[in-house]
Amino acid sequence: MSHAQLDPVARQRLAVAAVDAKIAKDLTWQEIADAAGLSVVFTTAAVLGQHALPKKAAAAVADLLGLGDDAARLLQTIPMRGSIPGGVPSDPTIYRLYEMIQTYGTTLKAIIHEQFGDGIISGINFKLDVAKVPDPEGGERAVITLNGKYLPVKPF
Fold first, then answer.
1. What's this protein's family per the entry (predicted)?
2. Which residues are catalytic?
């Protein structure tokens, strides 16, 4: 395990520097993902410190953002995951997602277990997508798709 893997503060500092560079260069998350050759969701999560990027992708992202070789190496380290410190999140967007899980979490669990049996939905073998679609009543709607592999409990 490298020293960087033991230093979540270094990953936080890199995330701040990366977002600063993104803003200064007027880049979108999609443009950064295109440079990485990975999905926008995975790349964004990695730049924000929640995933490790493969070597080639890390080098491309660091180069695009002008962050250097040390940043490229750090983008490859396995992070300490979990981006919401403390208790209930206070950021309105994250709080609403938290609220949705608080409201519908037991419903989702009941339906998943009824349809699949006892087990979990993987957060490792997992895909996430966010899409903007028109609202028939005017404005726009956000469609969030969580697509995880079902892993049944195996008796032993």
1. Belongs to the cyanase family.
2. 96, 99, 122
